[in-house]
Specification:
alpha+beta; TATA-Binding Protein; twelve-stranded mixed beta sheet; 11 helices; 12 strands; Germination protein YpeB; YpeB_PepSY1-2
Length: about 425
C-alpha cells in the first residue's frame, strides 16, 4: 500500500511539473509573439516616418534622375509597411483600408517613374498625401502606443483585436484612411468599372428562391439529385447576395454557390475519392466542352489544360461575338476527375463579371520589322487583356519561336492593335 501511495504521489508530482512546464512554455511563446508584434509595429512606425520624407522629397525635384530615388523609396517603403501591417493582429477594417492606401501610393509612384503620370497631377496628389501622412502619423502613434502599453496580457490583446466592437481609436483610423483614399486617389473610370464587376453590379435579373437554385443544382449535377442539401443566404454586408448550398450524397460532399439575382452558377466544389483508372486527355477535353454547354455557357473557347496526379484543370475564355477575340478576363475554370472525368469544381466568377470592351482600331504591323530575324511567328489571333490602368485592350496575340544556334524558345506576346505596345510577354519554354 505504501508503495502504491508513493507511486501515486510521484505521478502527481510528475504531472504537476509537466503542467507547470507546459504553462511556462505557453507563456514564453506568448511573450515571444508579443515581442515580435511590438517589434513589427515599431518598424512600421519608423518606416512611416521614412515614407513621409520620401513623399516630401519626391515633390522637390523636377529632374527625372533626381526624382528616381525618392520614387523608388516610396514604392519600396509602401510595400514593406504593407508587409508589416499584414503580419500584425490589428483591426481588420483598418488593415484593409491602410493596405489599400499604401498599395495605391506605391503604384502611383511606379507609374510616375515610368512617365505615365503628368507632373501637375503628381504634385497635386503627393502634396495631399504628404499633408495626410503628417496628420495620420500622429494618430497612428497614439493608437499603437495605447495598444502596446495597455495590453499586459497577450490573450487580452487578441481578445480586444477580435471583438466585434474594436477600439474607437482604430475605428477612427480606419475612417481616416478611407477618407484619404477617396480624396487622394479617386477611382478612375476603369477602377470604378472593375469594382462594379467584382460586386456583380451588372446583374439586373429578378431574384430567385432557395428552392429554385436547389432544383437548378440537381439539374446541373444529376449525381446529386438525391443529396441532402443545406441552403443558406449570404450575410448582410457581402459584396453581392448569393445562396450557399452544402450537400452530402454517398461519397460526395461539397458546396455550390448561386447568385440570388438570376440564380447564376458561381462556384462548385465536390470532394470524393479519386480512383486509379485514368482516361485520356482528349476525353477530358470532350467532357469539359459538353459540361460548359450543358451549364449554358455557349460563347466560350477552351484556352488551357493542365493536370496534377488526381485532376485536370481546364480553362475556357469568352469570345467576343464581333471579332471572335478571346477575352481572357472573362474565364471559366473547371476541375475534372482523372478517373472518369466527373466535374469536381467550377468557378465562373470572372465570366459573370463580364468585361466592358472598347471600340479600338486595328492598325496592321509589319512583323518582319517588329521582331528580329531570329523570330518566326507560329500563330496569330486576337485577344483582349488589361493594361496597367485596368482597361481592356484588343491585342494581336502571337506565339513566336526564337531560334538560335544553341537553343529555341517559344514566347506568347500580346501587342496592342492600336498603339503596338507590348502588354504581355511570356516565355513558354
Amino acid at each position: 500500500m505504501k508503495i502504491l501511495t508513493s507511486i501515486l504521489a510521484l505521478a502527481v508530482l510528475v504531472m504537476g511539473v509537466f503542467l507547470y512546464n507546459s504553462k511556462q512554455n505557453e507563456m514564453d511563446m506568448q511573450n515571444n509573439l508579443r515581442a515580435q508584434y511590438t517589434s513589427r509595429m515599431t518598424d512600421a512606425s519608423e518606416k512611416m516616418s521614412e515614407l513621409q520624407k520620401s513623399v516630401q522629397s519626391a515633390t522637390v525635384f523636377n529632374d527625372k534622375a533626381a526624382q528616381a530615388e525618392p520614387l523608388e523609396d516610396i514604392w519600396r517603403l509602401s510595400s514593406e509597411i504593407k508587409s508589416d501591417i499584414a503580419s500584425l493582429p490589428l483591426d481588420r477594417e483598418f488593415s484593409k483600408e491602410w493596405m489599400n492606401y499604401l498599395g495605391r501610393l506605391g503604384d502611383y509612384a511606379r507609374l510616375k517613374s515610368q512617365d505615365k503620370v503628368p507632373e501637375e497631377q503628381w504634385l497635386k496628389v503627393t502634396n495631399n498625401v504628404a499633408k495626410n501622412l503628417d496628420e495620420f502619423s500622429y494618430e497612428w502613434q497614439n493608437a499603437s502606443t495605447e495598444l502596446l502599453a495597455n495590453q499586459q496580457s497577450f490573450k487580452k490583446w487578441q481578445k480586444d483585436i477580435k471583438k466585434d466592437e474594436p477600439s474607437k481609436k482604430w475605428t477612427a483610423l480606419s475612417s481616416t484612411v478611407k477618407g484619404y483614399s477617396e480624396s487622394d486617389f479617386p477611382l478612375t473610370a476603369s477602377e470604378s468599372d472593375d469594382l462594379k464587376k467584382k460586386e456583380l453590379k451588372s446583374i439586373e435579373d429578378k431574384p430567385v428562391t432557395k428552392n429554385q437554385v436547389e432544383n437548378t443544382l440537381k439539374e446541373m449535377f444529376p449525381k446529386l439529385k438525391n443529396a441532402k442539401l443545406v441552403a443558406s443566404s449570404s450575410k448582410e454586408g457581402a459584396a453581392y447576395p448569393f445562396y450557399h448550398i452544402q450537400f452530402n450524397e454517398g461519397i460526395r460532399t461539397g458546396y455550390v454557390d448561386y447568385t440570388q439575382k438570376g440564380g447564376h452558377l458561381l462556384s462548385v466544389l465536390i470532394e470524393r475519392p479519386i480512383g486509379k483508372d485514368r482516361i485520356p486527355q482528349e476525353q477530358i477535353k470532350e467532357k469539359a466542352e459538353r459540361a460548359v454547354k450543358a451549364f449554358g455557357f455557349d460563347d466560350v473557347e477552351m484556352v488551357e489544360t493542365r493536370e496534377n496526379h488526381l485532376v485536370w484543370h481546364v480553362v475556357f475564355a469568352r469570345l467576343n461575338p464581333t471579332n471572335k477575340a478571346r477575352i481572357y478576363a472573362d474565364a471559366i475554370q473547371l476541375k475534372l476527375a482523372k478517373d472518369d472525368g466527373e466535374i469536381l469544381g467550377v468557378n465562373t466568377m470572372e465570366y459573370i463579371q463580364k468585361e466592358t470592351l472598347p471600340d479600338q482600331k486595328q492598325t496592321p504591323v509589319n512583323w518582319d520589322d517588329y521582331f528580329t530575324e531570329q523570330v518566326t511567328i507560329q500563330k496569330e489571333r486576337l485577344a483582349y487583356t488589361e493594361n496597367e490602368l485596368l482597361q481592356q485592350r484588343l491585342c494581336y496575340e502571337l506565339i513566336v519561336l526564337k531560334d538560335t544556334d544553341t537553343r529555341s524558345h517559344t514566347f506568347r506576346i500580346l501587342v496592342d492593335t492600336e498603339t503596338h505596345e507590348v502588354l504581355k510577354s511570356e516565355l513558354l519554354n
